[in-house]
Design brief:
This protein has about 250 residues and is of the alpha/beta class. It has one domain: NAD(P)-binding Rossmann-like Domain (Rossmann fold, 3-Layer(aba) Sandwich). Helix content is about 45%, strand content about 15%. The strands form 2 sheets. A 7-stranded parallel beta sheet has the order 3-2-1-4-5-6-9, sandwiched between helices. The longest helix has 29 residues.
């Protein structure tokens, strides 16, 4: 249980996800109040109670639909207080085969991984700028660093989100607001259940949360949760296109 004075609050968007809950626990342990945001937020009641009891901090749950972008301004205005830190752990991972056949599925994947997260962070950015402080964290993906045949719909959405975060960071650099881009690589979550992931390249949700907390405290810009991904993606990005087209990765 924290004995420190309140530090302000951390807003976790996509709080029902394994990474989102790990982030909530990590910052609660540091003494921050926690705002959990997700669809059907009433289902987070047990998590709210657990975090509040475990760390002795205030925890609130808030209804949030990342695709309902017209309501994002109202969502932020209704929060009990403007957070000090906001973490977007929102995202889906649709199957590439489905996205190729079903354009509605592709649209949902693109909007869930790019449009929705970008708009809510843009809204929060404006509020943070008006206050003159704050940190925004966007969880993107190494899949956005080069389009691959096996997941290019998801990857292209993450590429857009990564570019958005970069531009937002550049815009806010002199306005007291910092932006962190997180590129986790493989993470052992419900979203990746059933996938044959290499152990050395696969992080746990708590590992991602720890990396985010460190990045926030040290004001890092772009982080890879496991260092190997930086070099793996460097190689992949520099494979000549003629060779890359013949590869199945």
């Amino acid at each position: 249980m924290s004995t420190e004075a309140p530090k302000g609050s951390v807003l976790v968007l996509g709080a029902r996800s394994d990474i989102g809950l790990a982030v909530a626990h990590r910052f609660a342990r540091q003494g921050y109040a926690i705002q959990l945001a997700a669809r059907n937020c009433s289902s987070l009641a047990a998590d709210c109670a657990d975090i509040a009891l475990r760390y002795g901090i205030a925890v609130t749950a808030h209804e949030f639909d990342v695709l309902a972008t017209a309501g994002h301004e109202a969502f932020v205005a209704a929060l009990p207080e403007l957070p000090i830190i906001a973490v977007s752990a929102v995202g889906t991972m649709g199957k590439q085969d489905d996205n190729e056949r079903d354009m509605a599925a592709a649209i949902t994947d693109i909007r869930s991984n790019f449009e929705g997260p970008a708009i809510i962070l843009a809204v929060l950015a404006n509020h943070f700028v008006a206050r003159g402080s704050g940190t925004l964290v966007g969880i993107s993906s190494v899949a956005g660093l080069r389009g691959r045949a096996t997941n290019y719909v998801y990857g292209s959405a993450k590429a857009g989100f990564t570019a958005f975060l970069s531009g937002l960071r550049n815009r806010l650099a002199k306005q007291g607001v910092h932006v962190v881009t997180v590129l986790p690589g493989f993470v052992d979550t419900r979203m990746t259940a059933g996938m044959d992931l290499p152990a050395k390249l696969t992080a746990q949700p708590a590992e991602v949360a720890d990396a985010i907390a460190v990045a926030v405290s040290k004001q890092r810009n772009v982080i890879y949760v496991r260092w190997m991904w930086r070099y793996i993606m460097l190689i992949i990005r520099h494979i000549p296109e003629g060779i890359f087209k013949k590869m199945k990765i």
